[in-house]
């Protein structure tokens, strides 16, 4: 066009700048920027806005700010402000995005749905519930007609969940006049991320009742909930749904299936899914390695790790947690040492506290207590409760009372409100026949109003999860359950099983 002597106008330039943004052709965009300055086209708001967007897409936040604040040409409109706010959020400056929004309001501009969605995502990134609630109130106080804007409602749900308020998220969700699959996904995924897996599955069941088909994001969130609740039956249903609808079990879905089967105790099914995946990534291998380690199948876990290297897929920090855990459970000290050293030597990964904890656990289980202590002393980072807890566990296994007392002091200093160190140390004293010291610890716990966290057992029956705690009688069939438990205990005692052993206590 230029070669033919035709002069581009304010309609031409925005299209060319959009093309530059799509292909991130920064140098070409800068040349057009210069051309727009020479021809006075930058005074046009459409040219100005698309140029801002180009710099935002290319990650040049300073260029966006400079263009926005210091150029005297165009009259800035809502698109200009929205582009600036979006650039700040995208580049990791959510607080600057909020400040820009306040400046926009002072300039007497009313935000539209897109501006508010971007603004709410900034609140999500900040995790600032107070600020997010203020933005929500601003929408209603200024009578913004957004009742039909499903995107704003979805952004509000996401913001409230990421800021920790399931109550307000549920309120927005329930009051929505129209919901799409993103609305349901926001609720299900948000609840699952907060560890409210039962509530997430309740929402999923409601989604099914309204006849809306789940997508990949829905299925991954449901599988995550199944994995953490041990709901194998529902997990199998999801897998059958995936097969029936010919959804590829690769990437996120495949990885979620592996994790679900492993955590629900079906490691062979997890391995079948893994083998059937055509495209495996680092997360696929890591999920399989961690799953095998969890099931005590160290050799298979290490074989998968070797295959991973042969396939040219580099492990990450989580992969090595699985590998070191596998070595620890199998007592493979030399293998564990080698992999721990390879982290930094070959893969340029800095060991974190989780990796040091795995190594302390490995040495402790193998009876190499002095080596575990030496490792902690030479740690380049401050050892946390996970590391000290691993050492205290080793003290219990090998009856190291004096060392246990030192470790307990460290644990109490780090986590003064937790009861784990007291319970474990009390057991160490009991094993060493130091009953007075054990009783003293129990009295200290009572004095500090520290109660032992009750253990929780769960079982899945007909797709429903049932939880039980010590002394729990809240279940509607608790009378029948305790009656059957008493009969089982009686039969075991009559046949001489468990009598006089620690296991017998579990039935009393």
Give the SSE map:
Blueprint: H1 12-23, H2 26-38, H3 45-57, H4 61-70, H5 78-90, H6 94-106, H7 113-126, H8 129-141, H9 150-162, H10 166-175, H11 181-193, H12 197-209, H13 216-229, H14 232-244, H15 251-263, H16 267-276, H17 282-294, H18 298-310, H19 317-330, H20 333-345, H21 353-365, H22 369-377, H23 385-397, H24 401-414, H25 420-431, H26 435-447, E1 456-461, E2 464-469, H27 478-494, H28 502-505
Helix pairs in contact: 1-2, 1-3, 2-3, 3-4, 3-5, 4-5, 5-6, 5-7, 6-7, 7-8, 7-9, 9-10, 9-11, 10-11, 11-12, 11-13, 12-13, 13-14, 13-15, 15-16, 15-17, 16-17, 17-18, 17-19, 18-19, 19-20, 19-21, 20-21, 21-22, 21-23, 22-23, 23-24, 23-25, 24-25, 25-26
PPR repeats: 77-111, 149-179, 180-214, 281-315
Pfam families: E_motif (PF20431), PPR (PF01535), PPR_2 (PF13041)
Family: Belongs to the PPR family. PCMP-H subfamily.
Features:
69% helix; 2% strand
Give a structural overview:
Keywords: Repeat. This is Pentatricopeptide repeat-containing protein. One of its GO terms (molecular function) is RNA binding. Belongs to the PPR family. PCMP-H subfamily. PPR repeats lie at residues 77-111, 149-179, 180-214, 281-315. The chain is mainly alpha-helical. Helices cover 69% and strands 2% of the residues. It is built from 28 helices and 2 strands. The chain has helices at residues 12-23, 26-38, 45-57, 61-70, 78-90, 94-106, 113-126, 129-141, 150-162, 166-175, 181-193, 197-209, 216-229, 232-244, 251-263, 267-276, 282-294, 298-310, 317-330, 333-345, 353-365, 369-377, 385-397, 401-414, 420-431, 435-447, 478-494, 502-505, and strands spanning 456-461, 464-469. The protein has a two-stranded antiparallel ribbon. The longest helix is centred in the C-terminal third of the chain and has 17 residues, at 478-494. The protein starts with 11 loop residues before the first helix and ends with a helix.
